[in-house]
Inverse folding.
């Protein structure tokens, strides 16, 4: 049973074996991202009807909600890799954490940006300091702080340990974002989609949101794999296989 | 079908700046991220080849 052997899993923890595997996976995730985005946009703009209260501005939700989910999910995954790197001392997990941060920060910014543009016609304001919006802004600062701390420390091992710890401490913010609409009185509405009850919106609207979520998900994986390959090349630039690879690509 | 014409589609019932401002910035940022990654890959490859050349020259 190869799947149950420790060696089977640990061989992919080596950057050298992971590099070609990631390379093979990227086109599949990138292709899925493009197709799902096109399908999601079609449903979002041509199938889902206009909202009787919000008009067409609600179509911003088809990217706002998936981006918000991704901003939190990527942070949790990044944190899991950072923890794995701290505990097992595996270099690849630390590289994966580093590869996810910029994409997570991008989705967090998209969440805030689209939220502001939706809030203006719906609430009458781009921004309020309510718990949901403020904690999401803190998430952006956590991502930026993680990236800044990494690049500020020259020694890669110390950089990964310091930034990994920062990521771990910051994960407390994710449940705060998620439950903020229940714990505090926020202008931001509660969840319309949850795991425990049926979504409180039209089926076509829900479909557009879910398809766009999978599109962003595939995009994030493709981009993170691409970036982790670059980090592997940068860190292992003295390794023989990296040198040979660079020579071949000419 | 939601729209009777393309101009109606682009007008988004008066919410055009908000809707297109959201979608535009989102996809622009994604495109920029992909562009920066590709540029970084070229830079990394160039750097590794330069390291190899420098090593060869010192060995000779």
């Amino acid at each position: 049973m190869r799947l149950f052997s420790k060696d089977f899993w640990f061989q992919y923890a080596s950057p050298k074996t992971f590099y070609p595997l990631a390379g093979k996976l990227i086109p599949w995730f990138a292709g899925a991202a493009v197709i799902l985005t096109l399908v999601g946009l079609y449903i979002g703009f041509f199938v889902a009807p206009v909202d009787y209260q919000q008009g067409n501005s609600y179509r911003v939700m088809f990217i706002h909600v998936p981006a918000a989910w991704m901003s939190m999910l990527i942070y949790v995954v990044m944190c899991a890799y950072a923890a794995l790197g701290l505990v097992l001392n595996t270099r690849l997990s630390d590289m994966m954490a580093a590869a996810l941060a910029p994409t997570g920060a991008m989705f967090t910014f998209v969440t805030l940006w689209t939220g502001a543009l939706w809030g203006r016609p719906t609430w009458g304001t781009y921004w309020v300091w309510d718990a949901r919006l403020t904690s999401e802004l803190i998430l952006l600062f956590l991502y930026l702080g993680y990236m800044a701390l990494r690049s500020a420390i020259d020694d890669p091992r110390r950089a990964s340990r310091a930034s990994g710890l920062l990521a771990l401490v910051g994960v407390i913010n994710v449940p705060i974002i998620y439950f903020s609409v229940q714990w505090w009185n926020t202008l931001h509405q509660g969840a319309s989609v949850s795991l425990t009850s049926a979504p409180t919106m039209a089926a076509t609207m829900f479909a557009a949101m879910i398809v766009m979520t999978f599109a962003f998900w595939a995009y994030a994986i493709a981009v993170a794999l691409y970036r982790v390959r670059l980090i592997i090349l940068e860190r292992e630039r003295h390794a023989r296989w990296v040198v040979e690879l660079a020579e071949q690509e000419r | 079908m939601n729209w009777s014409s393309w101009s109606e589609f682009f007008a988004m019932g008066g919410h055009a700046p908000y809707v297109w401002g959201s979608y535009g910035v989102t996809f622009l940022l994604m495109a920029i991220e992909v562009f920066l990654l590709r540029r970084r890959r070229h830079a990394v490859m160039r750097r590794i080849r330069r390291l190899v050349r420098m090593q060869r020259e010192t060995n000779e």
Remarks:
- Chain B touches chain A at residues 1-3, 9, 12-15, 17-19, 21-23, 25-26, 29-30, 33-34, 37, 40-41, 44-45, 47-49, 51-52 (CB under 8 Å).
- The CA atoms of residues 8 and 14 of chain B lie 9 Å apart.
- Chain B has a mean pLDDT of 91.
- Residues 33-60 of chain B form one domain.
